[in-house]
Amino acid sequence: MSRIDFYVLPDQKENGRALLACRLAEKAYRLGHTVYLFMSSEARAAAQDDLLWTFRQDSFVPHERYPLTGEERSPVLIGMASPVEVNAQVLINCTEALPEGFEHYERIVELVDSRTEVLAKSRERFRQYRERGFNPETHKL
Question: What pTM, to 2 d.p., does this model score?
Answer without folding.
Answer: 0.96
